[in-house]
Amino acid sequence: MHWTVLADPEGNVFCVLEPRAIYADTGPIAAVVVSCTDPRAMARFWNGAIDWTLHEVADDFARLRSAAGVGPYLEFVRVPDVTVGTRVHLDLRPYLRDDQTAEVARLRTLGALDADNGQGDVPWVVLTDPEGNEFCVLTPG
C-alpha cells in the first residue's frame, strides 16, 4: 500500500500519501477523491461542469485538474459498493461574470438533477451529479 488511511476526530477518512511526482505542486491537499461506480461518466460530467482539464481516464480511474494547473486534482475511483460514507460534497462558485441561474441551467443540461435536502430558503442551489452526489451552486463572487 502506498498510503496510510486515517480519520479525523469526527470519523471522516483521509489518506496520507507517500511523495509522488504528480502531486508535487498541489499543496497539502493532493486530490479530492470521489468513490463511484463509473469514473468515465463522472469525469465527463465534472469536466463539463467545471471545465477542468482531463488528465487521465480509464474504466477504474479518472483524474481532472484546474486548466491553470494549480491546486488539487479531482479524482474518481471505481469501488464495488459506494456508500454514503464515501460520498463527497462540492460547492461550486460561478465565475464572476456568470449568473447563478444560467449556471444551474447549464449544469442541468449536462445531467445534474435538482435536490432537496431540506435546505429551505438559502442563496445557493443544491443539485446532484449523475451518481447522486449533492453539490451546491453558490452565488458568484
Characterise the protein shown here.
With 141 residues, the chain is an alpha+beta fold. 16% of the residues lie in helices and 32% in strands. It has 2 helices and 10 strands. The chain has helices spanning 39-50, 100-110; strands at residues 3-7, 13-17, 31-36, 53-57, 61-65, 73-78, 90-92, 113-114, 125-128, 134-137. The strands form 3 sheets. It has a 4-stranded mixed sheet with strand order 3-6-5-4, covered by helices on one side. It has a 4-stranded mixed sheet with strand order 7-10-9-8, with helices on one face. It has a two-stranded antiparallel sheet with strand order 1-2. Strand 5 (61-65) and strand 6 form a beta hairpin. The mean pLDDT is 86.
What's the structural blueprint in terms of helices and strands?
Layout: E1 3-7, E2 13-17, E3 31-36, H1 39-50, E4 53-57, E5 61-65, E6 73-78, E7 90-92, H2 100-110, E8 113-114, E9 125-128, E10 134-137
Parallel strand pairs: 3-6, 7-10
Antiparallel strand pairs: 1-2, 4-5, 5-6, 8-9, 9-10
Compact overview of the structure:
The chain is of the alpha+beta class and 141 residues long. It has two helices and ten strands.
Placed side by side, the strands forming the largest sheet appear as 3-6-5-4
Strand content: 25-35%
- Biggest pleated-sheet summary: 4 strands, mixed
Q: How many extended strands?
A: 10
Radius of gyration: 16 Å
